Amino acid sequence: MKFIPSEYKQRNMKIWNEVAPRYHKRWASVNKGPFQSTKKLVNLVNINKGDSVLDVACGTGVVTNEIQMKIGKSGFVVGVDTSSAAIKIAKKWNGKKSNVNFVNTDAEKFSFSKKFDIVTCQYALFFFPNAQKALKNMKNSLKKSGKIGISVHGSKEAVPFFSSIIDSVTKYIPDYVPPDSPDLDRFGTKSALRKEVSKAGFSKIIVKEFVFQYSPGKFEDYWKNYLKYIAKPLKEKLNELDYKKRKELKQLVKAKTLQYTKKSGEIVFPWQVLILSAKN
Questions:
Q1: Per-residue model confidence as pLDDT tens digits over 217-241
Q2: HSE of 155, CA atoms in CB hemisphere, 13 A
Q3: Alpha carbons 195 and 172: distance in angstroms, whole number
Q4: In a 3-state reduction of DSSP, which class is residue 111?
Q5: Residue 177 near residue 127, CB atoms below 8 Å
């Protein structure tokens, strides 16, 4: 089955429109796990009062919200995302302000008449089929003296919250992740992230590594929440498994979480995050 970027984007948008409210409630709106990086990303690019900022793939507007606290009334921030459901939440979450705006558009295609001082992009670069096109688009949106700030998840091994389940599920459902889809950790090492951003023409690149802790509770909580929060197409594939295989799958996932499980039964996962800053 050939990978077709337009189909991948359509599928992704459909999924995000479905999961955006759950994602916001469970992840983005709380300063836990990987979202401890939001403040660090904004601080790393040194946003000041009066700055104009573009927040690419803004999702439900959490980074945008942090940015607007820094820019004051004299600056402005624009958040862009392909998910209309996420934009709707972002608007509500950020409140009605004349210097905060949201645009429903594709990261590889947007263009603005004005140039920005800073561009941010949290947990999205790995989703873009053509990351170079998106990065060059961000570069073209910056002033000559502008800066970019990007956060990505670390390598698969360094984010066991995802890999414990995905590695197990794909053994039972090989097409669980559509063939040739961009990997979540494709920029999960400092060298891979630096290389991709450098290739787009950015300079003075700095990549910092952080390891946050995240507890999904005990194993039953982790498993039940996974089943509860996954998107409908994935849920349907899981439901097609017979009882025996589903039980085997659950045991396989549990075995992978044991090394992160405390005596109390609580799982505490490490979560590696890379945050990059660079000059135009």
A1: 999 999 998 888 887 877 888 888 8
A2: 6
A3: 34
A4: coil
A5: no
Domain count, the chain: 1
Measured distance CA(260)–CA(262) in Å, rounded: 7
Mean pLDDT by 10 residues, the chain (280 residues): 71 74 73 87 95 95 94 95 92 91 90 94 92 95 96 94 89 77 87 97 97 95 88 82 92 96 96 96
E strands, 99-247, are 100-104, 116-122, 142-153, 203-218
CATH number at residue 109: 3.40.50.150
Q: For residues 70 and 74, give the distance between their C-alpha atoms in angstroms, rounded to a whole number.
A: 10
| Structural domain of 162 | 5-279
DSSP track, 220-233: HHHHHHHHHHS-HH
Return all residues near 56 (Cβ < 8 A) that are at least 6 apart: 80, 107, 119, 120, 121, 124, 134, 138
Rg of the chain over Cα atoms, rounded to whole angstroms, equals 19
